[in-house]
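thread: overnight batch results

M.L. [08:02]
morning all. the overnight job finished for the chain we discussed friday. pasting input first so we're all looking at the same thing
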Amino acid sequence: MKINRLATVIILAAILAAGIVFFAGCKKSPQEIPGIPETAGGKINIVAAENFYGNIAGQLGGDKVSVKSIISNPNADPHEYESGVEDAIAIAKARIVIKNGLEYDSWMDKMLAASPNTGRIVITAGEIAPNLLPYNPHVWYSIDNIVAIANAVTEALVKAGPQNKTFFENNLTQFDNSLAPLRAKIKEIKSRYSGTPIGLSETIYLYQTQPMGLKVLTPFAFEKAISEGNDPPAASVAAANNQVSNKEIKILIYNSQTVTPITTNMQNAARALGIPVVPVSETMPPHKTYQGWIMDELNAVENGLAQGVH
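M.L. [08:03]
and the structure it wrote out:
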């Protein structure tokens, strides 16, 4: 009988969980065993499904944590990620796990189920985020959502390492303060370009365009289908293409990690007509902080709007 990769990973994770039970010299079931709270260096083990959550956890935990981010390749589509044995081992050892939820990283649910552990703290961003948009799991693009998620991570850190409570809370204050320039940039863009008609290749950037007051013309059915990896309705494709060919939009923002022939044609048509095309990504680029990543994209959008609006 052929076993697919995910099944193999789950089996190996289950074996690992059983191994932890054996070497701990404990007769309890995996569900009753507390998590492994620290590494050999005394740090709290954290596993984040996506690297932006891992980066935020690292900022909040400082030198008291060891963080592993599973999705870190900006060229990969997180929706289509296939977890591996190394991921299973990391999750089995984690004291804190951060995932997005909202069916964005459902592979994490399978990995967690493969190594059940009552001592592990699981943070699901989509269940915490106060600002949810319909059919849109990209909650980290909302600054208000990130504040709530950072608070939840800090609460988990305090629970895992209560002796460092003041340290973690001070880091949270610094993190909250570091978001002020992002809020200011969004406000600045809104003051200059509110109501400007724009196009989106998919739903990801709605969490930014709405607070900026930009007018998204692209049919939502088109955005939703592309985001979910489906073929958009023909009528929505025609409408989106007409908005480009008629220069009804002043800028086209596209997700560089969900490129399809349809979105590539839109980009090419926009460029040919002098409509600025601005890429955004689902995964944070290497060697960036969350704040730096979001600010870079905001600056790129602002520059594109300046070029597109005459």
